[in-house]
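User: Structure with nicotinamide-adenine-dinucleotide, tokens only please.
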Amino acid sequence: MVDHITVKLGERSYPLHFGHDLRTHVRAQVEQATAAGRKLVVVTDRNLVETQGDALAAMVGATPRIVLEPGEKTKSLTDLGRVLDFMAEQRLDRTSLLVVAGGGVIGDLGGFAAASYLRGIGFWQIPTTLLAMVDSSVGGKTGINLKAGKNLVGAFHQPTAVFIATELLSTLPAREFAAGMAEVVKYGLLGDPGLFGELEQGRLSVSSPRLAAVIRRCCEAKARVVEADEFERAKVGGRALLNLGHTFGHAIEQVTGYGTYLHGEAVAIGLVAAARLSQRLGMITATEVDRVVRVVGAHDLPVALRSPLAWPELLAAMSRDKKVRAGRLRFVVLKSLGEAITLDEVDLAPVEAAFRSVGAV
Ligand SMILES: NC(=O)c1ccc[n+]([C@@H]2O[C@H](COP(=O)([O-])OP(=O)(O)OC[C@H]3O[C@@H](n4cnc5c(N)ncnc54)[C@H](O)[C@@H]3O)[C@@H](O)[C@H]2O)c1
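Assistant:
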């Protein structure tokens, strides 16, 4: 069964299609686009070709494709150049479509290639990781990394359609699945107490019958947030709420050099730190913090740093974060388990205490 919701952004609106198996559904759309004279090319990574080659072939047939190396290093200027050159070699024009099949790395890179080729062509997202299904494939943030830092170059460019086929998760490594769960826990904490309660009932796994409904629920939440604040300009709340746990998480990733922790693992520790910060600010209780720690831990995610990191380095990393506004530290904190708010000009002392509580020294 294929079901869909719409991300409502006026002329940039687009559908998110949901199903276990979307092979014939995507194939029909490919054929329709081709019949209408549109050219398509696919960008994906080697792991996907090796593990999901049949599903991909069923979806896109013999559509020309470029296969990149898996991993964060691929979100680079070099690989962006490769994709753009490939698009030009295939003579894509303004009516053409880039089909981006992969996790957040391929999604961000492919989306940015679509945003920049001929000043912007359409693209489809076929997310293949849990993180990409619940987060990165929806909302139009695209980009690449520079040597100086992550996601420093990019564009807002909404996809023209997103196809979320949960069967693709069957080959996702367990550690990657857990990392995606950090974003699911985040949605519960920031705005959906019912979802958080559901996660407290028991661990969600790739074979859980509830998984598809949970993914859809996260996408609905993301769609509503993006509709209200597409370009993250809201002075309070808005899209910035999606950064719950991320200011801490990005600092951990930066200081450890993007290899020790997966993004979701750093976010998981960041969620615990954000809960402790909220407690220090008198917003939630120690019992509520314990509930956050339990849910994060139950989903095979770290609740503290595996080895200590120096607070001054973490602080320096947080101060470089592009989400820092006018030199002031801005945090997303919890008013309750299920309601987040943004706070500007947070004092350093409780931030430091929160970071030390998850293992900073
Ligand atoms: N644009 C956004 O809004 C947004 C939001 C969050 C994260 N991100 C970005 O997303 C990236 C992380 O994405 P990710 O966690 O999906 O990582 P990823 O794209 O690196 O994928 C993780 C690993 O799983 C493999 N893989 C993917 N799908 C698979 C499948 N179905 N079966 C087997 N292997 C599979 C990949 O080859 C890779 O090795 C980061 O660069 C982050 O900055 C973007």
